[in-house]
Specification:
single chain, 468 residues, alpha+beta, Helix Hairpins, BirA Bifunctional Protein, domain 2, 2 domains, eight-stranded mixed beta sheet, three-stranded antiparallel beta sheet, elongated, RNA-binding
Amino acid sequence: MIDLKLLRENPAHFKEGARLKGVAVDIEHLLALDARRRALQTSRQALAAEQGQLEKVVGPQLGKLSGELKKAADEGARREIEGQIASLRGQPAALKAQVQALDEQERAIEPELTALLLTVPQPPDADVPRGEGPSDNIEAKRWAPAGWDWGKSFSENKGFPAQNHIDLCARLGLADFPRGVKMSGTRSYVLAGDGMLLHQAILRYALDFMVHRNGFKPMSVPVLVREECMVGTGFFPAGREQAYQIEESKRGGGSGSTGGSGHDLFLTGTGEVGLMGLHEGEILDESVLPLKYVTVSTCFRREAGAAGKDTAGLYRVHVFDKVEQVIIARADEAESRVWHREMIGYVEALLQSLGLPYRLLQCCTADLGVKNADMIDIECWMPGRGEFGETHSASRLYDYQCRRLNMRYRPGGEGGKGPTAICHSLNNTVAASPRLMIPILEMYQQADGTVKVPEVLRAYMGGKVQIG
RNA sequence: GGAGAGGUGGCAGAGCGGUUGAAUGCGUCAGACUUGAAAUCUGAUUAGGGUUUCGGCCCUACGGGAGUUCGAAUCUCCCCCUCUCCGCCA
């Protein structure tokens, strides 16, 4: 969520940002709603103050009068006092009605304003290249292990033609697609034998890599979360159709403590949701920043709108596992930029240790998504596809996500004074599998159809050197 | 699944119809004392928002929502959450 105050001060900046991202949002209307709400607020508050004053005066008088009423003997005095009470009661009541009327008007605006505000995208940073779509993304760097020549094809490099991972999986019994589909429908799979072991080896290696070499704190977080968590992390409302929804609200039942919940739950599409949700609504001590978290979690994606795309194999699936890194930092642009580079660096080191050719892709404005000020994708070379495939995505969000989550800290350290500040957040994939199995299987295949196990993974596969 | 208890400031914990944004303790910060520290004493210490002549002024919030009342942290209803006991169970 963007800062409404900044929007008021500089609407043009946000209009231009939305335009660059190709997001349609009526900012003029938002500003009008905001202005109207503030006008209502101002007059409401003035009336409420007056009402409060009056109540303080009238209250005790009422108490006194009702005491006198009890004691009053004759009918005449009684009626006199009752009249006074009635008129006293009428005074604040009239104001209260006015306040309520204004309240109602304000409440009528609120949902629309909030909904609109949530859809205003974070403007791209000035140094993000402008573009219309993925084709305008810019390759920023390319790396390959010794012996790999980008100028040559796979078979020229290796001396034999590449099989794609689907064939390799079938031949080596690493994955069973028909049975996956039988149980769970399209985009489902079963990993078997060494395929399952390789999958687990990747995840565990990546987790250890972040924990032991880069000082991240390993966490296990929920993958089944409430709507607020999805909205807070910025995946809703824009990506609502991508998430699986568990309709607990429709089950009813549930009395008291253990019973069913009245709220729907959602399966998360990335560990980022659970990690960022951890400190929702908290005011953190500045000394704990930056928080560096890593999780390995199962990710669920409906892949709505991707019908017919990448239907075969392990590339685009509904359920996968991912090691994800997240950093929650001080509100400082320069610091955010440094962490962004760091987080990309960790992944580069990981991929280099795996010997996988990759490139960094500077995403253009149109490809950033609503949350990001900047995003760098990392793509691994996938010989079976004959092209790069996205395996990582490193996002820099400034305070966009933390504002939604109401995640703050108090600058100035030492118990702190002064106003709170909203944290900055960043995230990046560490390893998503089975997708990362694709470049591994395809790059490590040998002429005889077997697959070498990357050296760094062998310890995680019981010392196995070769599959098949 | 059954039965009960409870959700108050950074934490613990009072308040149970008005002057309580909230006692008290702990923590934290500032000052005093001290060579320094500890101990002690004094003071400060919720957040969000509106408005501002930038000195302030004001509104909102005691899990969330609705209600009763002239007035609600306090009473009623619904929801969410936590805990205890029994049952079941990876």
